[in-house]
Write a structure and sequence with these properties.
Blueprint lengths: L7 H4 L23 H13 L13 H4 L6 E5 L10 H5 L9 H10 L2 H5 L5 E5 L4 H5 L10 E4 L6 H9 L7 E3 L19 E3 L1 E2 L16 E2 L2 H13 L4 E5 L16 H12 L6 E4 L5 H5 L2 H10 L21 E5 L3 H7 L12 H14 L5 E6 L6 H13 L6 E6 L21 H18 L3 H23 L4 H7 L4 H4 L37
Parallel strand pairs: 1-2, 2-3, 3-4, 5-8, 8-9, 10-11, 11-12
Antiparallel strand pairs: 6-7
Helix pairs in contact: 10-12, 15-16, 16-18, 17-18
The structure holds cobalamin and iron/sulfur cluster.
Length: 526
């Protein structure tokens, strides 16, 4: 993920050659690829014989594209690097820097193997980032016959068949959410052993592209079949993929189904050959509603985790990592753009929910990776201060915090809004940004010698490049990242870590669920 944020033109100086070092089977097929592509492959295998379908990396295209090839399907996760985080971090190296993702994708679509056989083949591009190509109006230049936007289970097969018959394709197809039974069992291994457990989310955050996907849970037998297919091809690591872990087999109104979750975790862990299990996303409110769910899942989530940290109390120092979107500390913005995230709590309770949820997770050795969005539409200085206050209250948490800039993703309710620009960040937003990274640096720092070099490099960066690119608003926040003593930053920054400032928020004993949202009875795990 960090790789995606590097600028292509400097990548070779940053030692990233390993990233194109791919693993292939003796015949040149890819050993593992993104799960979405495996789904498309499974659909094709329902209609075409296995010898007619090949899944490969760009470097092996020559081996598979020839006179008989009729269609090439490309998975686009982040083809132009214009999602959260990616272009922000590449921007630090200069305005014209293109993220490595974008350069690699261009190399792929302009591959000679495709150029040489253009006359008899069609190119179809799909995946979560396909919209970016349309957004940057590159479809024609890259000679992409059809862009597929959204979930393609009920659309892809028909398009590929039309391409094979040599029929013209629509330039753009927008898909709707498939029925559960249309999602096929995947036949081969995916990167990081990604196995979907749910799809969609009904919480309705206005900036989120998956919010519009219809919610469903993949049946346990299908999950286990997918896990076994991964293991059969050498995987010992499964990533349970979901927009929100706690939606798995959920009850009414986001009621967490502890029993089903525990059963699923244990069943996956029991598949012979599995050594590691990772999680993707989850919301924080369920951990506050029922802290027991974190306790129930910890033997697998922590016990099978690949991550280790000295701050973990697990006998082997393992900790569970899950992506949690906290997004803002401003109740005003929260109410406006993402109030469903806190349910069953009220938006006004968001800071309390975050602090309590973090306490529950940390207690069980879950160290979440949390995102915040800077520059949501209409964000005022007061809103940024609110986020800083929440960040301050989390200063002793065990976590990783990733500040991102607002990107108006296509197919979201905010798609027409203006995105945040790194060059226009205010001093407070810079403070938020670099305080997050200071936390991460301190929590994950391994070698002190490396830290010193980094600290000294920061002023150098500021005076040679940073100041010119982003102005003086970044200066003192950046110096905090470089561990300048807090007493000399106190008067320049909003947060004061010198010990004189008291957090505006504190963890409460219990966060009360509003009466109107209380459920008659929560399920009891027997
Ligand atoms: C797993 C995952 C990863 C893994 C990928 C490994 C893997 N094996 O897939 C890792 C951790 C590497 C990763 C990294 C990143 N990810 Co990611 N990732 C996901 C996640 C959680 C699940 C993907 C998945 O399997 N979904 C289920 C499958 C079935 O859905 P799908 O991939 O969309 O595929 C469907 C369609 O897109 C389409 N389709 C897919 N491929 C093709 C190909 C053709 C030819 C056709 C016709 C159709 C088609 O059909 C499929 C079936 O419906 C999603 C969130 C989500 N739940 O989708 C985010 C998500 C896709 N990632 C996202 C982002 C932003 C990133 C990063 C850029 C993060 C970063 N800033 O660093 C990086 C980029 C990585 C890179 N190098 O390009 C965003 C994309 C936002 C956007 N719309 O542009 C998402 C949506 C998360 C989010 N809500 O923000 N990611
Ligand atoms: S809770 Fe997460 S997945 Fe669901 S709509 Fe909000 S941001 Fe999207």
């Amino acid at each position: 993920m960090l790789l995606a944020t590097l600028p292509a033109q400097y990548a070779r100086f940053l030692g990233t050659d390993w990233s194109t070092d791919v693993e292939v089977w003796p015949d040149g097929r890819a050993k593992f690829v993104p799960n979405g592509l495996r789904v498309i492959e499974s659909l094709l295998l329902q209609r075409f014989p296995p010898e007619d379908v090949a899944v490969c990396y760009p470097d092996q295209l020559d081996q598979f594209v020839g006179e008989d090839t009729r269609v090439i399907g490309i998975h686009a996760h982040n083809p132009l690097g214009i999602t959260f985080a990616t272009d922000v971090y590449a921007g630090f190296y200069g305005r014209e820097c293109e993220p490595i993702n974008a350069a690699e994708f261009r190399r792929l679509v302009q591959h000679p193997a495709m150029e040489n056989h253009r006359e008899h083949l069609r190119v179809i591009v799909g995946g979560p980032g396909a919209w970016q190509i349309e957004h940057k109006q590159l479809q024609q230049e890259w000679r992409i016959d059809c862009l597929v936007i959204g979930e393609a289970e009920e659309t892809a097969l028909d398009l590929f068949e039309r391409a094979v018959r040599g029929e013209p394709l629509p330039p753009r197809v927008e898909c709707s959410s498939p029925r559960l039974e249309s999602i096929p069992v995947t036949r081969h291994r995916s990167t990081f052993g990604v196995v979907e457990i749910t799809r969609g989310c009904g919480r309705g955050c206005q900036f989120c592209s998956v919010a519009l996907r219809g919610g469903k849970s993949i049946p346990l037998p299908q999950i286990l079949a997918n896990v076994r297919h991964q293991v059969a091809e050498g995987a010992d690591h499964i990533t349970l993929t979901t927009e929100d872990l706690f939606l798995y087999q959920q009850g009414k109104k986001f009621q967490t189904n502890r029993r089903a979750l525990k059963e699923m975790f244990e069943a996956v862990a029991a598949v012979p050959g599995i050594r590691y299990i990772s999680l993707t996303h989850g919301t924080i409110a369920p951990a506050v509603v029922e802290p027991e769910v974190i306790e129930d899942l910890s033997p697998v989530a922590v016990g099978y985790s690949v991550h280790r940290h000295a701050a973990s109390t697990h006998p082997e120092n393992r900790y569970a990592m899950m992506f949690v979107g906290l997004e803002t500390g401003s109740v005003r913005l929260f109410k406006q753009f993402m109030k469903g995230k806190a349910y069953p709590f009220r938006p006004e309770q968001w800071p309390e929910v975050v602090l309590k949820g973090m306490q529950v997770m940390n207690r069980h050795n879950w160290f979440p990776m949390c995102t915040f969005i800077i520059g949501l539409p209409g964000e005022t200085r007061e809103d940024t201060r609110d986020s800083l206050d929440l960040l301050f209250a989390l200063k002793d948490a065990k976590w990783c915090v990733i500040p991102t800039l607002f990107v108006p993703l296509e197919d979201t309710r905010l798609e027409k809004k203006e995105g945040a620009r790194i060059a226009r960040l205010t001093d407070l937003q810079w403070e938020f940004f670099f305080t997050c990274w200071r936390y991460n640096m301190d929590f994950f720092r391994r070698q002190r010698s490396v830290q010193w070099k980094f600290n000294m490099g920061i002023p150098l960066y500021y005076y040679t490049l940073g100041r010119r690119l982003f102005g003086s608003a970044m200066k003192y926040p950046l110096f905090r990242l470089a561990h300048f003593p807090e007493w000399c930053l106190r008067r320049k920054l909003y947060l004061d870590f010198s010990g004189r400032m008291h957090p505006r928020y504190q963890v409460s004993g219990e966060v009360e669920i509003p009466a109107e949202h209380r459920r008659p009875e929560l399920p009891v795990l027997t």
